[in-house]
Design brief:
The longest helix has 38 residues, at 48-85. The model is unreliable at 156-161 and 192-200 (pLDDT under 50). This protein has helices at 3-18, 23-30, 34-41, 48-85, 93-107, 124-136, 166-177, 216-232, and strands at 118-121, 145-152, 186-190, 207-212. It has eight helices and four strands, in the order αααααβαβαββα. A four-stranded mixed beta sheet has the order 1-4-2-3, covered by helices on one side. It starts with a helix and ends with a helix. The radius of gyration is 32 Å and the shape is elongated.
Length: 236
Amino acid sequence: MSIYLEKYKQNIAVDMRRRGFSYSEIESRLHIPKSTLSYWLKNIKLTPEQNKKLNDKRTEVAKANALKKISRTSKIIEEIKKSSSRDIKKISKKELWLMGIMLYWKNGNKNDLKKGVHFSSSDSSMIRLFLKWLKEIGEIDDKEIKFNVFMPGHDKNSTNKKTNFTDEVISYWSKITGFPGSRFSNVYLQNIGRKKVSNGKNSKFGFLRVKVAQSSMLARQIAGWIEGLKNINNLK
């Protein structure tokens, strides 16, 4: 760069700085390295208003960059999820059998044999999977399946009281399970405002307990399968 062109650009840079332009803006327009700009502009003082304007610009740029990064990350995550979901092909009956055992084991009911088979969750996908498991693996008929709904409330002494959104809750779980609303007659109001339900969520629609009538034998089978998994994997 000739000395004349350099001086010309320096004068423009000084003028732009005095008008409140940031180093990045001047660098972008004049294609001058920031190190050179720092030397040229070190004695240029900005007014408080100009400094505020520059700080506001920096904040806006930082927010815009953060949003772009979040958007890029979200797209990457979605692509990974789509790619991973394609890895899952048709589930065999043996795989479904094992999935149900692990799900039941996680639910923590394995030693409660006197109460038979029961599974609780506010996660609709887990409920659907367990019902699928009961029908296809346990060969349980629909009429043997019972439901209890536990709804979020505020008064721990209000158990069995119907609330204004009871019908909405029953409609929700009926749609999730495919069972008619008449099968959800046992609705309980619980004080779960400060604690999480079984799967780590505190759903607006509470959680559903699936029970199997006369299921002590199946409960013992499940307990045995869980023990077998422990033994084969040396988990005891």
